[in-house]
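Entry 14. Ran structure prediction on the chain below.
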Amino acid sequence: MRIVRWALLGALLAMGGAARADAPPLKGFWRILVKPKARWVLYDTIEKDTKRRKRIVVETYDVRKVGGADVARLRWTLVGPKGEKQDWGSSDSGRYTQVAVTDAGLYILSDDMDDAKIAEALKKKPSRSDPPKPYKGTKQNEGRFLKVDGDTVCVGYEPLPGDGDCDDTCFGTMCLTATRGVTRLDGTWAPDNSIFESE
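Output, structure tokens:
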């Protein structure tokens, strides 16, 4: 199963590396993350038994203005097959729990930051530019990347060239679009190292 997952995820990452010049992300790409009462649902695509399938529900809340920025908190809820719920948010693992968006770009914040701390963070450069610009993983950024494929932007981390083989525990990806919000979560950023996608 790990080999299959690695092959599927490798194919996605390879596809994401070929940016389409005819459809670059437009200015304002990140504003979908601060849309009031937005809700996106991702389903486990590896588990074929619908009675056992898990899902992740991503919701925006506490949407507000801080200075010139639009700010929102994001709730990531892992829902089990029997309706059991677990908080799955982690800004360090691509599941942003609080963000700010300005004309300059996206600021990735932690959920414990109040408005005063956010105002201080806004004095610095954004975490991601607007529109998003692709970049490759390096030793300095621990393999983190941003890839663009048409209207989809994927962020994550992956092994660097020469790192050798690994199982399904050495990469993670989160993808989104400007209109459909979060569309994919996989690798170590997803439950059970699975592949969760919107339908």
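Residues 2-197 form one domain. Will compare against last week's run tomorrow.
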